[in-house]
Amino acid sequence: MSSTLALFILAFVAAIAAVGLSLARQILLLTRRNGLLRLKERNQMMARQQEDLDKRYRGAQERARQAELDKKAMQANLADVQRRIKLAKDDSYLVVHELGDPTEGRRLFTGTLGLGGMLSGGQPGARDGKLRGVRHLLEVWADTPEEAAKLAKAAYPAEGGYVVSKLQAQSVPAMAAE
């Protein structure tokens, strides 16, 4: 009986060891499975974060492209406006007012004609605001400087809002001007 009891005890210990090993194996399998599940969940969370970051990055790139296009459009508009301003400054007109006829023996007297602040006397052309920014040159054909001044003052009186500068004699004879 002692051998039977020894075998029984040995079989019982082997069974306990087998159950223990089986239990340890199951614990390892469950631990590994839980670790894999946690890694899969973490991987899925990181994939969602990556997608979110990719969307934000693409949105930022699109905004940067749009901002660059807007900047180029504004620069083109600015260049166009600057070009127009330069053309407007360069595009200056000169209005020449001529009095008298260039007949033989008459001399040419020139001066500037300004538009004063107060215009009256029924001069619709003088009231036109477009003429205020334009240079006006007065050319008078006369025999003497006094006659030239008299013709200028008669045609453009100070009461009408005109300012006539001193007329200067030019060296162009009447026949050469034609």
Please write the string of helix (H) and strand (E) elements.
HEEHEHEEH
Give the tally of β-strands.
5
Structural class: alpha+beta
* Overall pLDDT level: 84
Q: Which key phrases capture this entry?
A:
alpha+beta, 2 domains, 5-stranded mixed sheet, disordered C terminus, coiled coil
Task: Give a summary of the structure in a few sentences.
With 178 residues, the protein is of the alpha+beta class.
Task: Describe the protein in words.
Strands 1, 2, 3, 4 and 5 form a 5-stranded mixed sheet that branches. This protein has helices at residues 2-90, 124-127, 145-155, 174-177, and strands at 94-99, 107-115, 135-142, 162-164, 168-173. It is rod-shaped, with a radius of gyration of 52 Å. Helices cover 61% and strands 18% of the residues. It has 2 domains: 1-91; 94-177, no CATH class. The protein contains 4 helices and 5 strands, in the order αββαβαββα. The protein is α+β, with helices and mostly antiparallel strands and 178 residues long.
